[in-house]
Amino acid sequence: MFSTALDFLLNTVLNLLTMLFLLRFFMQLFRAPFNNPLAYMVISLTDFAVKPVRRAIPSWGKVDLSTLLLALLTQLLLQFSLVWLHGFPLSVAGQSAWISLIGMGFLGVLRTGLDMFFYAILIQVILSWVNPHSPITIVLNSLTRPILEPIQRILPMASGIDFSPIVALILLQMINVSVVKTLEVQLLSFL
What we know:
It contains six helices and no strands.
């Protein structure tokens, strides 16, 4: 029972931290405005790790490698912690087990990124109904524009209704279920 609670706690905290690092990464990549409550929250919650790592790992163009690396390290920590918690003998694990854990870390970053975009689109849709002038609307528009614009070019508005968020949500979930879950199952077979 204790290991289940600890498993849940590790998953929750480290996945949220990964999502914050990825949110900061994509906000910088897509040049979202940083003068709003959401950006202030993300910066204040991630500065403890980003500032020291940024001194060692500089940005590459407009790609902030430090926050991306921190997201990956957080997922690797999660994977190693979960395997250790369940009693897997890491000290005698073969090379395939280590490669599998590293692959699971990369997949964790991908899954968390897909979830982040899913929730950003969902929150943007809900806010468009209840409060379209919310301070975080500009940030959500910046984050979701690269996903929604290609769909909007293919699927025009019908009777003034934009169906691109629905299509994007379905596509994100399809990628998450069909690609990420399949790769996770294959990588877990090596453990």
